[in-house]
Amino acid sequence: MKRDPLKPKGGFYYYMQSTSGVVGAILLLFMVIVSICAVFGWLPHDPLEQNVEFAMKGPSSNFWFGTDEFGRDIFSRSLDGMRRSLTVSVSAVSIAATIGVTLGILSGYLGRWFDQLIVRLSDVIFAFPAILLALAIVSTLGNSWYQTALAIAVVYTPIFIRVARGPVLTVKEMDYVKVTRILGFSSLRILRKHILPNVTAPIVVQVALSLSWAILTESGLSFLGLGTQPPNASLGLMVSEAQPIAAFAWWALFFPSAFITIVVVGLNLVGDGLRDALDPARRSS
Amino acid sequence: MSNPLLSVSGLGISTVQDPRTLVNSVTFEIMPGEAVGVVGESGSGKTLTALSILGLLPRGVAIAGGSIIFNGTDLTKADPETMRNLRGSDISMVYQDPMTALNPVMKLGRQLLEVIESHEKLDDGSVARVEAVLREVGIPQVERAMESYPHEFSGGMRQRVMIAMALLLTPKLLIADEPTTALDVTIQQQILALVSEQRRKREMSMLWITHDLGVVANLVDRLIVMYAGNIVESGTVEEIFTNPQHPYTHGLLSSLPSRTDKSRKRLTSIPGVPQKPWLVGNTCAFAPRCFKATSECTASAPKLVGTLEKSVACFHPMGDK
Predict the structure, then answer these.
(1) Residues contacting A283, CB < 8 A, separation 6+
(2) How far is CA B292 from the centre of its chain?
(3) Vertex A237: Cα angle to A231 and A240 (nearest 5)
(4) Looking at residue A1, what is its pLDDT?
(5) A65, A78 Cβ separation under 8 angstroms
């Protein structure tokens, strides 16, 4: 179909214009496919299977990424670890974004005491370093995957409150929002259909960036022994476990670290790409 | 004579904290099917008066007294939900600047449907209803327009869409707050003609707010002249244009350029600047700038006296020509 030259170009067009966005999307897509393989168990070896015979072997045709000190396949474990990291961080960011955006929009729109309350509460959470607060929450709640996700969600909710609230303060003073009030629209309709769609751009970018931080936080927690518990695999935990043997088995440390790096870089690049695509002022053409 | 559709009496508007009067004891009526123009400088209280009818005064500003009776109910005592239902359906408003008054990320058809959905249930006929109104306000290729975003339209076209939004639920009263100031002159004339035509067809009452006397002359039946939060004169357009009684109205009219006057004289101006409404006190607000002012004018405030056809708040009216 021939495109109507008068029709505006869609967001996808602008996204594809951004090199970092495309590179990031490819990296991320790769990691998502890898995790899907782990979800369905399409792995060369059982990630938990120990085999002392093959302990600490370097990368080979049988064990692509080598094995650790218990003879477990690092390739399978890395894939399974990636799945776990993504599950935790996606759940955490979904919860944080849903609650944070709702509170942020309400807070910006309603103003007055409600705004004060929400902003002060998020300031309290902001006052703690993210990893420290997550640590405290996980050690109180427990460390199954959903409790870890919940802890990370609590830490990231205030960021979404701020990101959503700021633009609402601007948008609610726009003429088109005043017109909706003049024409008797209900507050719920104004918020949902006329304010939310006009503040999504920064929120979408924030989701991508928060995902990468959440993966780092999850890895950090696991590294410190509070997230995923052995014998299960998690990227952070694998890095932690590989520490004592890293001098003779570089692969045990290298591959999980590389996975963390790729997914975090990928998400950051996607965030950059989204920012470029969604902000008209940054569009090159 | 029938009952007025809208009857504002003794309406006062002031700030909530550190009370400052912004609009002082405004009284006027609008008959069913009648168009009334409100003229005045910026800060004379004309927009606040309109917003108070809609129950949408900005935060920190409130009605201090008086009543606004619309169709038998006092809007100053109505609860927020009643007011919300009234807005957009019985009382509607066309906004000043069409360039920013439409949601940039929503298709026009959807935005118009939102108006119906806010007050009634959408049904199979809703789309046809929206298309019919868009056709009436002169939008070409209505089907395509329904699927367009606001940025694809020019200012004049957007103002037509805004008018369509306001007319969609056939309001009894249409408030227009300087809807043509953001448009260029030729488009202005088209919009004025469109509004006039629609008003007659729908037998709708109208309150037209402007600072441009030239705009309202052919559009409204009666005029209200506001100065520093007070009505200084009101009457039929003909009376006010041919025989202004208040020195302020007189000054306004003589500062208008005329096409027939070839004498190349300088336009007359009114000396001084408008008084702040809250500093007026119990005097005639215009007294400091008035060439007819006497000690009587600063001793007490003149009351608006006269008939619907002609009334003036002045101790020393200009008198008949």
Answers:
(1) A14, A17, A276, A277
(2) 29
(3) 120
(4) 45
(5) yes
Q: Tell me the helix, strand and coil percentages in chain B, rounded to 5.
A: 35, 20, 45
- Which residues on chain B place their C-beta less than 8 Å from a C-beta of chain A? 54, 56, 84-89, 92-93, 95, 97, 100-106, 114-115, 117-119, 149, 151-152, 162, 165-166
What's the half-sphere exposure (Cβ side, CA atoms, 13 Å) at A105? 22
Biggest CA-to-CA distance, chain B: 68
Distance of CA A164 to the CA centre of its chain: 17
Residue B99 near residue B158, CB atoms below 8 Å: yes
Sheet strands (E) in chain B: 6-15, 21-30, 35-39, 61-70, 73-74, 91-94, 173-177, 205-210, 222-227, 230-236, 305-306, 310-312
Cα B32 to Cα A40, A179, A250, B35, B202: the distances in Å are 72, 25, 88, 9, 11
Q: Answer whether residue A50 shows pLDDT above 90.
A: no
Q: Do A185 and B114 touch (CB under 8 A)?
A: yes
Task: Write out residues 213-242 of A within 8 Å (CB-CB) of B.
Answer: none
Whether the predicted model's global pTM rises above the 0.90 cut? no
- Contact between B253 and B213 (Cβ < 8 Å): yes
**What average pLDDT does the segment B199-224 reach?**
86
pLDDT tens sequence across B149-172: 888 888 888 888 888 888 888 888
Residue A27 CA to residue A24 CA, distance in Å, equals 5
Per DSSP, the three-state class of A105 is: helix
